Amino acid sequence: xxxxxxxxxxxxxxxxYAQEVTIPEARDIDVNGEMVLLDQEAIVExxxxxxxxxxxxxxxxIYDTAAxxxxxxxxxxxxxxxxxxxxxxxxxxxxxxxFNGLSQIVADSIELINEGxxxxxAEVILDLDENTESKLVRYENCExxxxxxxxxxxxxxxxxxxxxxxxxxxxxxxxxxxxxxAPTGVFxxxxxxxxxxxxxxxxxxxxxxxxxxADFDPYNEEGVQYTPLSIDEAxxxxxxxxxxxxxxxxxxxxxxxxxxxxxxxxxxxxxxEDNNGIGLFNLEGDLGYNFAQGDNITVQGVIxxFNGLTQIxxxxxxxxxxxNDLPASLEVDELGENTESSFVxxxxxxxxxxxxxxLGDGSSYNVQITDGNDMITMRIDNDTEMSSMMAPTMxxxxxxxxxxxxxxxxxxxxxxILPRTSDDINETLNAEELISEYALNVFPNPARDIITxxxxxxxxxxxxxxxxGKTILKTEEQVINISMLQSGNYILRIRVxxxxxxxxxxxx
Length: 508
Hints:
- By secondary structure, the protein is mainly beta.
- The chain is built from four helices and 33 strands.
- The protein has helices spanning 2-17, 23-26, 231-234, 431-437; strands spanning 19-20, 41-49, 58-64, 69-75, 89-99, 102-114, 123-124, 136-144, 156-161, 166-171, 187-195, 206-209, 216-217, 227-228, 249-257, 266-271, 277-282, 296-306, 309-321, 330-332, 343-352, 365-370, 375-380, 396-404, 415-418, 425-427, 441-443, 450-454, 459-465, 471-475, 479-481, 488-496, 499-507.
- A hairpin with a 2-residue loop joins β18 and β19 (309-321).
């Protein structure tokens, strides 16, 4: 018992003595470049930036946008339950340390405060120094000093020069740059500022860590040229439904849509602001990109076609930003070439043609749905929660991603719709009767700040959906603060007695 009390006391003691410090305070150094708060336990906050150069553990940075200064975050063997994504606002507890001159915090806990914060633009620099440590920087109009320094694999250093200064690049083996040929000609390069100086004073050994091949602009590797195209150009097909750019190396930029339908690799849709879409598929590996819907990414790869579906097989992916709005859904009565890899909403109310097609066994399967006139194929993927759910028993409206599976040319058949999550299937029948049966009420409505939801039976869960069917908020509370929502119309999906009841909500 005494040992237990002592252990608890030690925990309280540790938390008590942890200092709340700003990133500038954590980065403060003396005349020898040594951290003033070296070996002090601290808590710091900042925006995550960069790239995780240590898969399965931690080597990335956090940034103070107001002070324009960063701090490296490190853990040798553990992610601490956090999956790195640029733009996250984090609160980190750990010990301030220095590794070969690089100031860092050795983290032992990470708290995610919020997501989708702006990531700073790379700062154009002429040289590296103490101010560029753990900051996103850009060195322009440079070329390799000695191309023979470029290695065929592994981690290595290589020098580049703009004709005035020389900067050392550190090519990390965990990026997609390692294993590629050397970039040729003049280029701009972006990366994270670093340092490797093994003795005091620590004012030397500054380096720059490119995060991916896309950080070289352009990356003119001998024999490979990526033609920049819009998504609307890249997804063009001829009269037979054959992709016009099939087999060509291209560069595309767009917003990610859906879920990653291939957890061991990458499979999702890429759309532009006008909802033109193209599939993205990589059999194995994520190329250093951690998928999230709403990311803006730039992709270099080869256009291909799989059973009629036009897609890009990526070779390099650059993350640009997160939390971008999806385009408005395309409302259609039928599927076709124009709906491939786009965000689609089917007009009308649909039911299952044969409920026995809905397997609910965790596998992937097709089900036929109808609005009473036409039949459409809905693809339920085993990587969605719907594959293990019960079949919808009432008519529903449907959002999803347009797909195609046509095994032979001409590729003008086999069109499908793939719902992303259960939120895309919204049951509609008997809504008024169910609202009456369960004495469901939402007040005030319209509302500005707080709503209260009541029912005769226990309310199990409430989702607030936007007009695209995306879940904005999920809660089990019946008194809900909606002050953060923009003015407009929403849908409450209220779970009562194993029934999903949809109730309109207006936000002032």
